[in-house]
Amino acid sequence: MVLDAIHKSFGRHPESQVSVLSGVTLRVATGEIVGLIAPSGAGKSTLLHIAGLLESPDSGEIEIGGTKVGGLSDRRRTRMRRTEIGFVYQFHHLLPEFTALENVMLPQLANGQSSSTAERRAHDLLARVGLADRAKHRPAELSGGEQQRVALCRALANQPQFLLADEPTGNLDPNTAAQVFDTLMELVRSTGLSALIATHNLDLAGRMDRILRLSGGKVGEADMMPDAAPIPPVASSLA
């Protein structure tokens, strides 16, 4: 995945516009796990949304799997988002009326997969994250860590090339966060995915292949030495 000279501002009128991204350029190589750290409000969620084709930049180019997406139709972009990119958010966003198994099946069914094949893959993914015996449980019957592992399975259901994660452990207590992160790393490594993971947790970021810092609308390699600017902690709750 390549983002080249991405600019993004918000505001209807030029005099009141706020520039969030000012020429961001970054590359995530095949099989690479890249951490993204930033102070609150720096625009990391906006950057991830643009990388995931959920928002369009004001200018700049996005390349996914060798394809430049700027000139693609909305239909092609939607299909690429559905098949090439997996998303994990801070909050799991599972559908409460469906079981864990059904939540993992749904993106596959939306992508035209047969019910039997979707169910088989959903079972396999849930087993890999230690939730084989929780497949028939609805989200309200699962712990916070279990819900986030289901969300990870859902993100990988269509076998994407790239995983984008926005504070995937930020709503979990430290022990649960570490367990979920271990699961995420194992799945990403074993499937050869590329991943861009935004986190405030510097210990977790330090386990990734490379760390980028977003500040002042620009992205650069992070300085993780003691004199580096601290990242404000995110309040966590026991799930």
Folded structure, characterized:
The protein is an alpha/beta fold and 239 residues long. The chain is 33% helix and 23% strand. Strands 6-7-8-3-9-10 form a six-stranded mixed beta sheet. Strands 2-1-4-5 form a four-stranded antiparallel beta sheet, covered by helices on one side. Helix 5 runs parallel beside helix 6. The protein is globular. The C terminus is likely disordered.
Distance between the termini: 33 Å
Structural class: alpha/beta
Count the DSSP helices.
7
Low-confidence stretches: 225-239
Task: Write the element-wise H/E pattern from the N-terminal end onward.
Answer: EEEHEEHEHHHEHEHEE
Helix share bin: 25-40%
Which shape, going by the Cα principal axes?
Answer: globular
Residue-averaged pLDDT: 85
Layout: helices, strands, pairs:
Layout: E1 2-10, E2 18-27, E3 33-37, H1 44-51, E4 59-64, E5 67-68, H2 74-84, E6 85-88, H3 100-110, H4 115-128, H5 144-156, E7 162-166, H6 174-191, E8 194-198, H7 202-205, E9 210-215, E10 218-221
Parallel strand pairs: 3-8, 3-9, 6-7, 7-8
Antiparallel strand pairs: 1-2, 1-4, 4-5, 9-10
Helix pairs in contact: 3-4, 3-5, 5-6
